[in-house]
Amino acid sequence: MFGLTDEQQALRKMVRSFAEETIAPGAAERDLTGEFPLDIVRQMGKLGLLGLPFSEDEGGTGGGTVSYALAVEEISRVCASTGITYAADLSLGISPIYLFGNQEQKKKYLPSLFRGEYLASFGLTEPEAGSDAGGTRTRARRTDKGWVLNGSKCFITNASYAGVITATAVTDPGKGTKGISAFLVEPGTPGLQINAPYKKLGLNASNTTEIVFEDVEIPAENLLGEENKGFSQFLQILDGGRISIGAMAVGVAQASLDAALKYAKERKQFGKTLSSFQAIQFKLADMATQVELSRLMVLQAAKLKDAHLPFGREAAMAKLHASETATRAALEAIQIHGGYGYMKDYPVERYLRDAKLLEIGEGTSEIQRLVIARYLGC
Amino acid sequence: MNIVVLVKQVFDTEAKIVIGSDGKIDDSNVTLIMNPYDENAVEEGLLLKEKFGGEVIAVSVGTDKAQETLRTALAMGADRAVLVNDPAIQAASDEFAAAQALAKAVSGLNPDIILTGRVAIDYGSKISGRVAEALGIPHVNTVTKLEIDGSKAVASREVDGGSELIEVTLPAVFSAQKSLNNPRYPTVAGIMKAKKKELKTATLVDLGLDPAAVAGKLQILGFSLPPARKAGRKIDGEPAAAAAELAKLLRGEAKVI
Ligand SMILES: Cc1cc2nc3c(=O)[nH]c(=O)nc-3n(C[C@H](O)[C@H](O)[C@H](O)COP(=O)(O)OP(=O)(O)OC[C@H]3O[C@@H](n4cnc5c(N)ncnc54)[C@H](O)[C@@H]3O)c2cc1C
């Protein structure tokens, strides 16, 4: 990629080595056992990766969004479960506190989060409110001591390992999306239950949870940002999160291409390597082109964000294109592997199972198209 | 403690070597990295600094591109860097010239200890001995453990069937074996800081060396790739019969037994 700074290139090189040497070796095994990569998260903290896109003034490492996108790509290229753990921790977990927290809240959580002592989660989705996140039902009632939360969240990443969860809840039922607020909730608070009941198609080593609030009392100071501004806050969080899902998708798509190309050069049929058949060459050429286009779009959105320019449209396009590219690239990689691609001895079936989530999480492909259409003025 | 680490930029271990139309090795599409053994040398330098204080200075001979490798050393934690960059040295391949230039650059830094990798993985050069010779100081190569006590150093090195302990007086040159330590990754903060650290560039004249005195010991006549490996052969059949057939072929055809 042309135009990366020396630091961005050095950062990518470091993360690539770390990913290949430390994350890749256990990836296939973790996919089978579902073992959470907690030790890897700790190491990421030591390397400063958990503070990567956040400014040095706030205790981050000040690498910016482009570096962060490159890191997410490199990590997801070898292990998408670790990729989503990392991306959800930063983009969904840490970002709300970083963007909307007051000084006390930031001081309380950010240093431990940047060090990797615990992770952070973002609880938005509910059984009845997915794409329509404005349909939040979890309720926060004001008391003289603070707030009481009731309701439930589903599919929440990292919450079993979180030290703090940002949860959205209705504070003013009459006002629709203008009556939603965000709260910081700490695991261990009485009435809060975090379960991990799901059996997933992929991303098996990532932690996906259900959160139940039963009369969970939290102090008044745990309101995050302004009361009743929760909806516009989470739209902003999701915009940023889309860049990271796009970057994850680029990583998985690149892994699919790499595996397919390697296999096509080795496997012989009819006395020739697969890569000598034009039909296979065309598949590889299309994959390579789509991967590169996806990467450019992700980095474009990241560059805009770093320049403090509007990036919502580009982030939605990047997420849409990259995630659909990842699924297609993984499918083609399986096709190029033939029957072997269907077997767990090769990594490409894992790439497909992992890729599919990228078209669903943080706004489905349909929702991305709605967002883009809105930018077009529809 | 003044710790100097000599590092070299080399091709990535997985790089595919391509000979260009000019007959030279084409490095345009190759990822360049710090010579892996030099990473161990940098790590050891940083560990010594953590223990005894002082400064770690990374020194390299190379072209403009080699700055990136020095920045990697700075990102790992070295304090400053010097690049000897002079068209008169074919730094990659001319061991003699590189060692002379490095020795001269190093002597101006008043080192207590000089560390480098045991071998450069590209041309197989081992400059540690040459640098020590040029500086007139002791040298221990392929070091697997290094202990410093005042002005003395005890270095372990692998020898057939065991290890050898060598005591030398500092300053001295040590070349690192892989097992010396585990090189750290540069941290994000290290990478961000590296840009602001001093990286000086010097020509041979800047160092007070006469280019004619260091150049021209080695002349490269040409490059060629090793012959392509022939496809292997698989012997089918029952194990006993296949083994007999294999033995026959190894004796009769390959003539190795
Ligand atoms: C592994 C995993 C991790 C997750 N992590 C988190 C997390 O950390 N935090 C969090 O809050 N959430 C998380 N989610 C939830 C995720 O964001 C939602 O699943 C997603 O937004 C879709 O919501 P839904 O599942 O309710 O689907 P629905 O909204 O019910 O959608 C079902 C289908 O209908 C389509 N559809 C819906 N509305 C429209 C429309 N208006 N026009 C056209 N089509 C439409 C959708 O595109 C989709 O195809 C995670 C999900 C998974 C699977």
What report would you give on this structure?
- The complex is a heterodimer of chains A (378) and B (257).
- Chain A is 52% helix and 15% strand.
- In chain A, helix 4 (64-78) crosses helix 7 and helix 4 runs antiparallel to helix 8 (278-306).
- In chain A, strand 2 (139-142) and strand 3 (146-157) form a beta hairpin.
- Chain A has eleven helices and ten strands.
- With 378 residues, chain A is α+β, with helices and mostly antiparallel strands.
- With 257 residues, chain B is α/β, with parallel strands linked by helices.
- Chain B has helices at 36-52, 67-76, 95-107, 128-135, 188-194, 204-207, 211-214, 239-252; strands spanning 2-6, 9-11, 32-34, 55-61, 80-84, 113-117, 139-149, 152-159, 162-169, 172-176, 199-202.
- In chain B, helix 2 packs across helix 5 (188-194) and helix 3 packs across helix 4.
- The chains are: A alpha+beta (378), B alpha/beta (257).
- Chain A binds chain B through residues 6-7, 9-11, 13-14, 17-18, 46-49, 51-52, 56, 61-63, 67, and chain B through 68, 71-72, 75, 185-192, 194-195.
- The site of flavin-adenine dinucleotide (FAD) has 21 residues of chain A, from helix 5, strand 1, strand 3 and helix 11.
What is the compact description of this entry?
Chain A has 378 residues and is an alpha+beta fold. Chain A is built from 11 helices and 10 strands.
The CATH topology label of the largest domain in chain B is: Rossmann fold
Percentage beta strand of chain B? 15-25%
The helical percent of chain B reads: 25-40%
Give the number of domains of chain B: 2
Given as residue ranges, the uncertain stretches of chain B (5+ residues, pLDDT < 50) are none
Silhouette of chain B: globular
Q: Biggest sheet of chain A: strands side by side, in what order?
A: 1-4-5-8
Secondary structure tally: strands of chain B = 11
Major sheet: arrangement of strands of chain B: 9-8-7-10-6-1-4-5-11
* Beta-strand content bin of chain A: 15-25%
Summed up, the helix count of chain B is: 8
Order of helices and strands of chain A: HHHHHHEEEEEEEEHEEHHHH
CATH superfamily of the largest domain in chain B: HUPs
